[in-house]
User: Fold these one by one.
Assistant:
Number 1:
Amino acid sequence: MTELINFVSNHLEMIYIVILMVFVGVEVIGHVPAVLHTPLMSGANAIHGVIIIGAILVMLGADPDNILAQALGFTAVLLGTLNVVGGFVVTDRMLEMFKKKK
Amino acid sequence: MEYIFSLEFIYIIASVSYILGMKMLGRPETARRGNLIAAAGMTLAIFGTLFLYQGDVSSQIYILIAIAISIGTIIGWLVAKKVGMTKMPELVSLFNGMGGASAALIGLIEFNHYLGDQLSILTIIAGILIGSISFSGSMIAWAKLNGTLRKPLRLPKYNILNTLFLIALLAFGAYIIMSGSDSQLFLYVLFFAALAYGVLFVLPIGGADMPVVISLLNSFTGLAAAFGGFLYGNMVMLTGGILVGSAGTLLTLAMCKAMNRPLVKVIFGAFGEGNKVETSEGSSKFKGNVREASASDVAILMNYAQKVIIVPGYGLAVAQGQHVVHELEQLLEKKGIEVKYAIHPVAGRMPGHMNVLLAETNVDYDKLAEMEDVNPEFDNTDVVFVLGANDVVNPAAHNDPSSPIYGMPILDVEKAKHIIVNKRSMKPGYAGIENELFYNQKTSMLFGDAKKMIQALITELKAM
């Protein structure tokens, strides 16, 4: 129990961020026309590619002698990059179609 | 101190770019810029993390990171650019899976570094569980969308089985956290069990519900990223992850609403169950004859119509018929006939998918009518031309309570004077259910490939 209390007091900022971001997420999506559901989902898909930051941190902190950790980290960075780059490019391609609207 | 401060500053900018980007993605006029803004924020965050990192890092590690990012960028870019517009939904699923896998791998590596710190282990285990489920689930969704896995596979009592599996999985995860175990075996068993659960979770869900599943898994991956943010105390991962998790959940619910299928029913649902129909031709449960029409019959009908509404579906996209349908539309307009497209919210394989495909061919945005707007218009429509759509025009949604799609909002095409349905054969649609519309007295079937049939129509119409 004390551990939990410590955790909460040590991570107060993060807890606030989580609560506020939940509302921001809800707010941002409200009243979006169905037409844009697919691009929006695709854009959100690219944004969670932010996991790549974690993968990079793993690699930066990796023990240079631990081959397994490096191999896994390498794969994590690679997959994260695919998520980010592929996600944003696909979304852009979808949205390219909308730009000619008068 | 200064370095850390500037990195935090970059993370703030990146977080704002995600929020702004998501907001702008919600409006057609700003959507594209919104995506670019979020992408710019992401690039900034990645390079900031790389170059402002505090600590000794061997050049070998930097080289490895550079190689991984380069390969990922090239492959991701090429795949995203080359793949046809019809394949986009499955591509989103594929990229989502990559993110999930990345989250799971991070957890696997970091487990050993945080032993003894129970709360960090909690975030790590959560990241592994969610990331793995998201990865394997997305792969199954991908295989289902591209047609590799057509039919829902169900073990007997799969609902109970899956639920028990999930409970066992969570209990095992909780055990690892509480016991403070350092067993690598346990860790990998958990990892593989989570992968297996992802497969079991998505396998029984029918293909028509895949967009909802992908959206749900999308928000899962967001959560996995947020857990990573908690682990590292990394604000940009936290904001980005929670934003996607929360927005993704809402988007999932919005999609469910568009299909009038509660999320619980999608997951534990019974698409096609208790209403199994043979996929072979000629074993219909409906009485009556199917009337077949030729391209010239249809051309005559259209030539003397005043108002034609086109209902595009996935079949049109598969036949690559978007461009010819635009040509048909222009030809009819030139003859003084009013033409519109009726877009069902889930036409194609994803909400908005059909709009994207038609916009690609320069169809005027104003001609794309959404369901609520176009439904009252069918009464005074002479010809409805259903192109490769099926479930979204199935009257069973209105009048057959035993049908799995009962209650789903549909396009009321049967109110029109004439209904032309173009299909390749009498096979049921994606949801695997038969369509009474085809046996309607006012319906004529135009069998054949959508593109070829439209081309034939255009030739006939030009000759008139």
Number 2:
Amino acid sequence: MSNESDHVYLSLAEGHEDGDARWAFGTGFEDPLHGVSIEPPPGVDLGALAASCLELADDALISAQRLGEWCTRAPELEEELALANIGLDLLGQARLLYSRVGQVDGTGRGEDAYAYFRDPAEFRNVRLAELPNGDFAFSMARLLAFGAWRLAVFERLAGSPDPVLAAVAAKGVKELTYHRQYAAEWTVRLGDGTDESHRRMQRGLDEVAPYLPELFDSCGSPEAHDEILAVLREVTAAAGLILPLTESTPGSAPLGRAGRHTGHLEPLLAQLQGLARAHPEATW
Amino acid sequence: MNGDLRRALTIAEQVPDPELPMLTLADLGVLRGVQIDADGTVTAILTPTYSACPAMAEMHAAVARELRDAGFAHVRTRTQLDPVWSSDWITPQGRRKLAEHGIAPPGEAPRQPRGPVPLVLSASPSREAASKVPCPRCDSPDTEEISRFGATSCRALWRCRACLEPFEHFKEI
């Protein structure tokens, strides 16, 4: 047992302005929108703005959790760093967006209320994000579809009338460009690799395909839809893979966006939320 | 600029980055300005490099701490998201310090054209950009990217094929 002074975590702590010991990094979670002007411009539908931010935040949080699960399981250290970094970018986007939801939905709640204290049916993420990681090739197929979709959505949201959402999206575009590039390169490398890697990459795409209509249904515009599809076609063609497409059924009910999830979300949230719910008064 | 404002700005500018302590916040381009209100409240304005940069909270705390220690009684910090930070904002001095510490400084950030962000696919993307990142140790242009993601969001892993040393590269965004 080490004594307190050389405890590895306590040694990271340093005096904070409030007099509390606080870790140097990571746990001093203050409002990520700290001090940002919060007044939305007149005429913006606050309910719709809050709903959009919540959807995008949930997509990012759930994806970040799945990406984080690759830690200690990725095939190489470099890939582990990459997947963790991509997850961290998405977690950052989620935090900013949850904070925005709390500012405009009239409740004044903080980011933790949304991340830790909602049940599965209250989450609005697309179902693709919550599926288990499975094969590395499946994770790459999912990241390609998710990245291409989110990038197309964020490109357009960078022109949102809400200045906070616009700024989060403009920053996100730069990050998502890296994410999409990473997944595209792996898709080509595996698709155009050995028979085994080709087979597994194709299987990954086949497993992602049933969830694509849900992305297309919430991409906002026909132009965004075509842009996403063009990217997926370009990458799969370069990789020698077949992009299986299922058309969405016109008039079909929304799924993840309506809180109708697969059975995979509940255990994911149990792990994500367990600590916060066991100690609801704790500060981080 | 009055004396107090100049002094507060100088103090804030000299706060080191928590993850790249050879750089100041001014070198990094994340300090967007300092204001003093009529009632004497000092406000330092910071912008994040990446959405989830884990050093942000510490940057805010460090700037506030330094200003308080310098005798400013009322200090606030504020986040500014727009315009979005770009690695182009790293100062020439910041770039020199990065190179001196073995981190290849960023080249020019890609211009965001109007319309869809282009996707570039090539058989070996790492060679594509090779000559753009000279080795910070031996200056050889014969370098290659190992991974676009490194120890922090802002850095990528590279290797020099001339001196065989691995090095980090500050990413262009």
